[in-house]
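ESCALATION

Customer reports they have been waiting on this structure for their group meeting. Please prioritize. Original submission:
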Amino acid sequence: DFCSLLGNLMDNAIRGCAGCVKKTIRLEIKQDDKSITVCVKNTVPAPVIANNPSLATSKKDEKNHGYGTKIVRETAERHGGFADFYDEGSMFCCNVIMYK
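Update from on-call: job pushed to the front of the queue and completed.
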């Protein structure tokens, strides 16, 4: 589950900053006795949540794309946690908490 989560988050971050002049991806992983927190932030050419609050895919082939954020949310929930997606300046951010 953790590999699937991290793979989806990083794939989304790489694709998200593709159209940016300055490409930045920040990954932070923290663990304590009870939980694992993963935070990924990446630059975006325009605010994501403001322009696409449902985080629907922008790819033409919607049938085979657009599952990444759903997988992230479902994985977090399966481990008693949650995923939060938000804009922060020129960055798109995802914060995931999963409990052990």
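Sent to customer with the following note: The longest strand covers residues 35-43.
Escalation resolved.
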